[in-house]
């Protein structure tokens, strides 16, 4: 699969001084040329420049100021064969991979939970608390096939 990779860098704001270059326009264009050539060495192709408005906070009281920001946009071609397309025939969907129901998908019968659940008596809502607080009686433990099942209090890990 091949695609374009993009890179966005801030445009140069200053006009560096250079020997033999006179005038602000010539100095600025030389600075822009240096920025474009530096990216071109890494095989980045110049696409365009964009000027956008950005909100920044400045000053002693951090007042919000809107200022223009100019960026240069570059792209380069990337060749790779590692990622298949989403619609490729090599990729299995969840429905294809799980044609028949697995053991974890079948709901457990209520009798399998009766062993530890119905035996513990809870005091009525208005009853005075006893001296010992009990923690919740259930926890979870992973079975060998990966499903979670509730475990009564004393048998917890």
Question: Which helices and strands, and how do they pair?
Answer:
Blueprint lengths: L1 E9 L13 H17 L4 E14 L4 E17 L14 H4 L16 H4 L20 E5 L5 E5 L5
Antiparallel strand pairs: 1-3, 2-3, 4-5
Task: Describe the fold and architecture.
The chain is of the alpha+beta class and 157 residues long. The protein has a domain at 2-79. 16% of the residues lie in helices and 32% in strands. A three-stranded antiparallel sheet has the order 1-3-2, with helices on one face. Strand 2 and strand 3 form a beta hairpin. The longest helix has 17 residues, at 24-40. The radius of gyration is 34 Å and the shape is elongated. The protein starts with a strand and ends in a 5-residue tail after the last strand. The relative contact order is 0.14. The model has no long low-confidence stretch (mean pLDDT 74).
Overall, the morphology is: elongated
Strand tally is 5
Distance between the termini: 48 Å
What string gives the helices and strands in order?
Answer: EHEEHHEE
The profile of the biggest β sheet is: 3 strands, antiparallel
Strand content: 25-35%
Mean pLDDT: 74
Radius of gyration: 34 Å
What spatial order of strands do you see in the largest sheet? 1-3-2
Structural class: alpha+beta
Low-confidence stretches: none
Tell me roughly what share of residues is in helical segments: 10-25%
Please give the count of helices.
3
């Amino acid at each position: 699969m091949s695609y374009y990779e993009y890179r966005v860098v801030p445009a140069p704001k200053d006009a560096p001084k250079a020997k033999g270059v006179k005038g602000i326009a010539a100095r600025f264009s030389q600075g822009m040329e240096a920025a474009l050539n530096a990216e071109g060495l890494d095989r980045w192709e110049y696409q365009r420049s964009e000027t956008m408005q950005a909100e920044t906070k400045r000053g002693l009281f951090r007042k919000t100021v809107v200022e223009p920001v100019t960026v240069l946009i570059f792209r380069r071609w990337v060749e790779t064969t590692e990622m298949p397309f989403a619609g490729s025939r090599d990729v299995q969907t969840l429905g294809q991979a799980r044609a028949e129901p697995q053991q974890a998908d079948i709901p457990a019968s209520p009798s399998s939970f009766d062993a530890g659940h119905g035996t513990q008596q809870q005091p009525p809502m208005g009853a005075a608390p006893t001296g010992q607080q009990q923690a919740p009686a259930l926890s979870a433990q992973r079975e060998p096939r990966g499903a979670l099942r509730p475990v009564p209090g004393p048998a917890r890990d």
